[in-house]
Specification:
With about 280 residues, the protein is an all-alpha fold. The chain is about 60% helix and about 0% strand. A two-stranded antiparallel ribbon has the order 1-2. The longest helix has 24 residues, at about 90-115. One of its GO terms (biological process) is carbon dioxide transport.
């Protein structure tokens, strides 16, 4: 175990800047395309399957593009899950959350500005229908977010022997699955940035907007605790966990980066161990 003096803060690395920029761009593109595919045009209105596939395929594409740079969380709930699971630092957690919200606002703003007024009127904002209670919507958001985050942890777990080349598609299908049922209850948030951006642009925060934050956050926390501390606990010392929390990595890792399309070794391995059990690639 290297001493603290031999470690470098990840926030000082140029790769950190590229990572938070990727979260901004990835979230912006995700919302721009996914929301745009959900608009009701006069010629043909989208059905639940089309909307679900639009969200899922867009997520899969963003993970494939940005996964090796930032992990492609593009979702504050996923970032919270990785933080609770002791897989990212508090600095990365804060920066990711901020850039994801800003990216969501940018993406929703772009698609809103280029779409005719009568088409963009609802911006596919999340809402709770009259025949669904707040409690029912809250439970659905928890369950669906839990399912998606558990899938993310599973398919990006470096300890799995099989190839993780299908991770992006698996995560995208998990998001599609969630939307196939969630659209009927809440429009399917499972991503606070996705709910917050349309609400800001439309200036409409309904009385149940808290559900689209608390539901995904609680579902993500439950998934992080169950996967990382119960089902597949990481065998790390207190010093290693503290190094991950603070965002330090061994400078020697710069010379140990193996080839391949995965995240920078300094972030996959912030504890300084060559065989750190988890990487930081993710979804949404």
């Amino acid at each position: 175990m290297a001493t603290t003096a031999e470690r470098r803060a990840e926030i000082l690395s140029p790769k950190f800047a590229w990572a938070i920029l990727s979260e901004f761009v990835g979230t912006a593109i995700f919302l721009c395309i996914a929301l745009g595919a959900s608009f009701k045009w006069p010629l043909e209105e989208p059905n639940v399957l089309q909307i679900s596939l639009a969200f899922g395929l867009t997520v899969a594409t963003m993970v494939q593009i940005f996964g090796h740079i930032s992990g492609a969380h593009i979702n504050p709930a996923v970032t919270l899950a990785y933080f609770v699971g002791n897989q990212i630092s508090i600095v990365r957690f804060v920066f990711y959350m901020i850039l994801q919200v800003l990216g969501g606002l940018a993406g929703a703003g772009i698609i809103y500005s280029v779409t005719p007024g009568e088409i963009r009127s609802t911006l596919f904002a999340n809402h709770v229908p009259k025949d669904v209670s707040a409690g029912e919507a809250f439970v659905i958001e928890i369950v669906l977010t839990f399912s998606v985050v558990m899938c993310i942890f599973s398919v990006t777990d470096k300890r799995r022997r099989e190839s993780r080349s299908y991770a992006a598609l698996s995560i995208g299908l998990a998001v599609t699955m969630a939307h196939l049922i969630g659209i009927y209850y809440t429009g399917c948030s499972i991503n606070p940035a996705r709910s917050f951006a349309p609400a800001v642009i439309l200036g409409k925060f309904g009385p149940f907007h808290w559900i689209f934050w608390m539901g995904p956050f609680i579902g993500a926390i439950l998934a992080a605790v169950i996967y990382n501390y119960v089902l597949c606990p990481q065998r790390l010392s207190r010093e290693e966990r503290l190094a991950i929390f603070k965002g330090f990595f061994d400078s020697e890792d710069n010379l140990q980066q193996p080839p391949g399309n995965r995240a920078d070794a300094r972030w996959n391995n912030p504890s300084g161990q060559e065989n750190h059990p988890m990487n930081y690639t993710s979804h949404m």
